[in-house]
């Protein structure tokens, strides 16, 4: 396994594929299984707050098996935008590893405030975030309704 940054990826497609794989069973009300590569690049890879140098990926044989996306304000705020692991690689501590390396790099780069967001049903990631010392500061309720014709 090799740890690297998103900035070191010659092509972001392996990260896109890992993002889709990790999000396939992520708790929440909006799935990511139908986003095209072009739309993913526009919405995620090309966003101005994506810090590719702080985004960490774990790779095995050219395949991204785990990643932690870093979004920053260029000042002191760092946000873990998404931390994910392919299902077949879960349970090995990889999410915690990539997030830990990303957060340590962010601290070394001068970031002093770290934020993250979790869906209530994502117990595994919530446990990782509690281990890092994150604490709840806000809650969000989303409502879903099917529109009738």
Would you kindly provide a brief summary of this structure?
The protein contains four helices and five strands.
**If you average the pLDDT, what whole number results?**
91
Note the main sheet.
5 strands, mixed
Structural class: alpha+beta
- Following the backbone from N to C, one meets helices and strands in this order, namely EHHEEEHEH
What radius of gyration results from the CA coordinates? 15 Å
Q: Which range does the strand content fall in?
A: 15-25%
Strand order of the largest sheet: 1-2-3-4-5
Low-confidence stretches: none
The shape is globular
Distance between the termini: 52 Å
Separate helix tally: 4
Key traits:
4 helices; five-stranded mixed β-sheet; alpha+beta; 5 strands; 149 residues
Describe it for me?
With 149 residues, the chain is of the alpha+beta class. It is 30% helix and 21% strand. It contains four helices and five strands, in the order E-H-H-E-E-E-H-E-H. A five-stranded mixed β-sheet has the order 1-2-3-4-5. A hairpin with a 2-residue loop joins strand 2 and strand 3. The longest helix is centred in the C-terminal third of the chain and has 15 residues. It is globular. The mean pLDDT is 91.
List the helices and strands and how they pair.
Layout: E1 2-5, H1 13-23, H2 37-45, E2 56-60, E3 63-72, E4 77-85, H3 94-108, E5 113-116, H4 123-131
Parallel strand pairs: 4-5
Antiparallel strand pairs: 1-2, 2-3, 3-4
